[in-house]
Amino acid sequence: MARRSAQKKKKISLEKAVVHIQSTFNNTIITLTDPAGNTLFWASGGTAGFSGTKKGTPYASQLAADKVAKEALKYGVKRLDVYVKGPGAGRESAIRTLQAAGLAIENIKDKTPIPHNGCRPKKRKRM
Question: Would you say which domain of life the source belongs to (predicted)?
Fold first, then answer.
């Protein structure tokens, strides 16, 4: 039986990347993608070693952003576009951490979904 050799992982080198920060009250998920939207790396408050309510803190999102920034530098990324989504506490601290890591942030865009009329209300209660 012929044995297949393990395929070598392609080395990706990027000048510019996109970071998506999804921040809820319970957690912050930070995803590094290429400009086409293919995920390269992600981290969250949970992968930074926190559990429970501590995942939603700005410090947890700071550590997660630091992980993503180190990985981005490995890929050779110098410039970033940042898309932020959600109402959580870790939004600003994650962006500050990315800047402090030496990555140049070009755009910051808030992609938080806003209801234009909301859901239909419940039926009135009959007495």
Answer: Bacteria
Tracing tokens 């993608």 back to the chain, one arrives at: 33
Question: Alpha carbon of 4 to those of 7, 9, 11: distances in Å?
Answer: 9, 15, 21
Give the pTM: 0.83
Do 107 and 95 meet the contact criterion of CB atoms below 8 Å apart?
A: no
CB 31 within 8 A of CB 42: yes
Among 11-15, 18-22, 64-68, which stretch is predicted with the lowest mean pLDDT? 11-15
CATH architecture of residue range(s) 16-110: 2-Layer Sandwich (3.30)
Yes or no: say if 126 and 96 are a contact pair by the CB < 8 Å rule: no
The rounded distance, in Å, linking the Cα atoms of 32 and 13 is 13
The residue extents of the domains of the chain are: 16-110
Cβ contact 53:82 at 8 Å? no
Report angle CA 96, 53, 51 to the nearest 5 degrees.
Answer: 90
Could you read off the pLDDT of 24-43 as tens digits, one per residue? Answer: 999 999 999 999 999 999 99
